[in-house]
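Subject: Interface between my chains keeps coming out wrong

I've been trying for a while to get a sensible model of this assembly. When I model each chain on its own everything looks fine, but I need the whole thing in one frame so I can look at the contacts. Pasting all components below, labels as-is. Any help appreciated, I'm running out of ideas.
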Amino acid sequence: MKLKSLTLLAAGAALLVAITGCGTPGSAGKPTASVSAKSGDGPYQLELAKAPTFAAGSTMEKLAKAGSIRIGTKYDQPLFGLLGTGDVPAGFDVAIGSLVASKLGIPFTKIKFSETVSANREPFLQNNQVDIVVATYTINDKRKQVVSFAGPYFLAGQAVLVLADNKTIKGPEDLAGKPVCSVEGSTPAANIVAKYTAKLVPTDVYSNCLDPLRNKQVVAMTTDNVILSGFVDRNKGEFKIVGKPFTEEPYGIGLAKDDTAFRAFINDVLEKSFTDGTWARLFAATAGKVLDTPQPPALTRY
Amino acid sequence: MSLRTTNRGEVSRGLASRGAASSVLYDAPGVRTKRRSRMISWVVAAVVLGVVGYSTFTLGSQGLFDAKRWDIFNDPLVWLDLLRALGTTLLAAAIAGTGAILLGMVLALLRLAASRWIRIPTTVVLEILRGLPVLLLMLFILLVFRVNPFVSVVVALVLYNGAIIGEALRSGLVALPRGQREAGLAIGLSGLQTRLLIEFPQAFRNMLPIIIAQLVVLLKDTSLGYIVGMLELLRRGRLISENFGAGTYAFSVFLVMVALYLAVNLTVSFIARTVAKRVNRAR
Amino acid sequence: MGVISGNLPLYLQGFGTTLFLLLITTVIALPLGVVIAAMRISPIASLRTSAAVYTEVLRNTPLTLVFFFEAFVLPKLGTRLDFEVGAIVALTLYTAPFFAEAIRSGINSVPVGQAEAARSIGLGFTQTVMLVVLPQAIRSVIPPLVNVIIALTKNTSVASGFFVFTLVSAGQRLASANGDQVIAVLVGVAVFYVIITIPLGRFADWFEKRVAVTR
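Reply #2:
Try treating it as a single job with all components included. I did that and got this:
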């Protein structure tokens, strides 16, 4: 009898999953942020384009006609892309992705999110597994050889985080030969090794670095300043950021290579949001809860 | 995964599975042995309790069991997310497990085929499948065949575990007394019929512990699905801890994860064993 | 494929760490596995029980969680290990029960009559196990042991999430730096694993056949 009920339980769980679409992330779900009385679609209250028209055969037309879009983003990046309860991530990257969708007339609930990690971003785009990637994705030349970038929509800079009472480390130059924690495969990790000959202690999520830092097993952790600020804010008085940001990390929106029309479209969407205040509003509603809202960056229409 | 079993049959009847009283390895304990054994038992129990107690106390004194580190588990939505992720894990494992056993049977047959033109290529494929990290296998399948993440996870798990189970079945077949096959052929069954009707059921039964262990490995390996963006139990747990603040909740999420995996895997092993026992009894 | 030859030093660095973790863990976990297997057939109930509980818990827990225990819980208990040492501890804790189970199934494969014969000529438990059962078990135990080692080879990759630079770390770094050739980078990683695992598999096969002949 016990066996039967256990089997039933398992079957029930399986059924549940089958109903919710195999549990693949991003099948439409409830918005996580609170929706106020203010009009607008989804958690970021974006105005949906009504029956927009696009050139025949363009990616925009295809997506608008399908009424849905697949967006790859980070699920473990505080402030930018973090998966909350439910199937929907939240953060500035997610807001920017939704903004693009809204201009295609696609409501938030029709966005299919999926998680991208450093090893699968370019392959996902190259193989048409996602339509766009908005994932703290630094624009660089090697990547440009296989994918195209719209934007940048944000300028981060790499910085260094140490214990609050550390007096010896004043910037990246002091890290030569010292153990420094970062996420393997990230641009900041590559920089700190190549430019400042630090000894990289690799992990897979930034929050993993905090305990070794507390235990003095590493002297510092490094990544983009915006992410570090999140940690300083969350652990009051424990950590500090030293020195000025020492790189420029332009975050871009990745899309299939040489889809020039789609790139131009996204750039137009971004540019408009820079000037009409939408960009600042989206930032304030997400990462702006911890960071000051900066000036929008300048687009590079290469 | 080759394993010779005794000609008497099941592994579970072997030397290492006997209880204290019935083991042939040592005498039934006398009074003095019993006393000594009891004393050692007390010492072991004291050491284990001491370590567990000290650990719990040390962790507790750092506030790791404080309510504020556990409050997320009061939220039914958190449990809903965990259960759905668990559902994904179980569904992927159930499909992949079935597939892996079927593939294992086919591979075992091919590896024992009379023609070397079948045997050798099968061996090559098997070695490669066995040697590749499942993580990479999943990513390759997703990219090369452009299937959805769930399918790529399942297929990768079928391929890898099918190879392992195939090897286990093959060595189970090889270890059967020759008379079994001869008897099958003698009563007029074809070679394949003998394999399927006479030899496979026995090999399967003899290799059951290995197959069950492999199914548990398979279930745990679903957690590699994060590489293709499949949201299963372990990834969900880690993301929950990131979402609410890993500094506060990493430890409690860790304990909950351990408990969930233990519960699920022990249940799976239990069900597999019970089913196998019933099947055996019915024969 | 230029990306593989061009970054050979980085691959080799990761390969070296993977090999190092593999060797040291095997050297420690294998004897530990023997001890656990011995405990599981010992006359003393508490040893049997604790070995069984340890085996069940570790075998049913994902390796990532074992690593988490080593990297984040042990330090809170006052044990701070070097990252490599920590990885070896986690891998050893996890792998030893698998070794033990392989050995145990090998012991099971020794016909009961062997032990009965040994006992009837007056050998005690230790003598029976050491002189009669284990030497016979070892032969049929090698192939499954090799399989555990193959699995361990690939399991070392989990260490890359916990502060150790392995083959997978090399893959991640190169994939990120060479966004134009991700697949080639990953094929490179796979090749290095297969360099270790296929010879191991062939060895197991060869050994099995040899034993089959001598029986």
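Reply #3:
Confirming on my end. Chain A has a mean pLDDT of 85.
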